Amino acid sequence: MRLWGRAAVIRRSLLPLWLLLLGLVLLTLALSALFNLDRDHTPQKPGPSRRPLQRIPTLPDPEVILDPRDLTLEELGVEDTAPLKSLKEDQLLFVQGTSSLQKKRTYKVLLPGSSKDNSVVLEPPTRTETGKAGLLQLESSGRDTELVAAQTYGFDEMISETISLHRRLPEARHPGCLDVQYSEILPLASVIICFHDEAWSTLLRTVHSVLDTVPKQYLQEVILVDDLSQKAHLKTALSEYVSHLDGARLVRSTRRIGVGGCRTLGASRAVGEVVVFMDSHCECQDGWLEPLLERITQDRTRVVSPIIDMIDGNTFQYNATQWPVRGVFDWKLDFHWESNPELQDQDPEVAVQPIQSPVLGGAVLAVDRHFFQSVGAYDPGMLLWGAEQIELSIRVWLCGGSMEVVPCSRVAHLSYHYLPYRFPDQDLLQRNKIRIADTWMDGYRKIYYRRDTLAHFIRQSESPTIAERLKLKRSLGCRNFHWFLTIVYPQLYIPQDRPALSGELSGQLVHQQSQLCLEAMKEGGEDNINTSTGGLFLRQCARHPRQQFHFEQLVAPKGA
Questions:
Q1: pLDDT confidence of 76, banded at 50, 70, 90?
Q2: CA dist., res. 347 & res. 397, Å (int)
């Protein structure tokens, strides 16, 4: 009993102490809340806000980051910024962290219009003369570095670094193009430049080439679309650089989506009436955009391309392409440019007149944005890279549009030594071609499968998922492939493929003794060779052969 009584006395004596401690805690919380309230109402000095997600409605969005899970035409990827749905993505600037040591991806959220370090160097200080090609004299260590750069990008990146980001190409247009008058009112264009691990100099030279050669009244914006690049210079440094460019903004994809998906993503963010898709290693001639806009204004279903000149990957020397030229493909669904200078000799006006092309290359394309979306954009089922320009060209022709090359517009494209990218699926090109064949070529797809054995075996083991594209084909009322071969590309020879009695040869037939090549010539001849009738002749072998021979049966020589 005594112990129980002592415990009760102790508890009664500690009760005032507990009440005192509780009162102190409550008083501390009250003072803290009062202090924070006063601080919120205290006037702040002018300057950037400390709140990381403050809305700034008066400034454009220089950069957004999207997760394009759904590659449809309705708001492609726009709904996938779930953690920040309380804000519009147009008000956010996302910069992916550059640390390679972190296993998890981190992002910094920057405010458009916030204070920036103005000490950023917008162009390397040492450059060769504007427009000139380069040749470096390097020591052994420098040559090793140059070799590594060439292996990384597929061209001599060190030479590129010595050339001005603002170099102007020599005039290569026909003199008649300089006298062409264009409409006073042309639609605004959004130029979309997709890139993946592109070199700093070639990417920025492309951007500046567009900004330097297009009048502001025709340029709505330049949109750079990052297809999940991993190079450090394409992260924070690029974001900072683009934020200083008037009329340019940056969109980043959170996963690798390839050429077609990247361009479709950019088109979904575009505002201009016309979208121009451009590779990330191009340089533009003066006056290149106006002729393209003029042709689209006359017919909104036209897809147009400039003449694609070449930039040598070793020296960055500019080489003008001889006109007329058009894009074609063979039965292996391989694309190439086909030159036809005789056409200009027959009709001098061809020098300034656009010509229709069965296919256009993918380096530079211009198309009305609404027509591009209505015709199905780029096929979302095409993998990463390869043959997407053939698929789009065939679809445009079959579904109510047309393709043209415009000679008064010229853009130079950098030629790779080799493709520097490594793809997870080495058969992706064949898989892309299988989609083309099964979707658009009808019964003629058998000709392709006989010429691509790998595609034939892949097709036997798995079928492409093309139900949505076939549905699009029906809804657009597209024509069949026989119409394409008859009207658009009648020059494409249709082989009979009779077993053991037919075949075809592409390239050159070389006469062993003379080392001359067999070439078919039309009546009247060409160059310095005059012939009263056409026929086969032995000539010096061409560097880029244009001959293609077909035979339907094997004939035994006379007297055999």
A1: very low
A2: 26
